[in-house]
Amino acid sequence: SVLSLAQTIYPYFPVALLIKDPFRSDLRIAKVRQPKLFIHGRRDPIIPLSSGEALYEIASKPKQMLIYDGSGHNDLWDAPMVDDIIRFVERFNHA
Description:
Layout: H1 2-9, H2 25-28, E1 36-41, H3 49-58, E2 63-68, H4 81-92
Parallel strand pairs: 1-2
């Protein structure tokens, strides 16, 4: 969640009082029944990989996680991500 991330970055600041929507993806992801593709850069300086992995763990199947070793947060397009997304979508395309 945004709240969890903010509390990690600013542990001594009352961030909960400032965040209008804590974006509790940890509570919402379990309700998603569609196939889920999690994409994360191992060098992401904004969202820790551990947060992405934690969200992946609580998500229901079907799911897949792709971690790009050389990527951060905004340079994932430099990875083979587009082809990986296409392959994921094709696996679940029932048209």
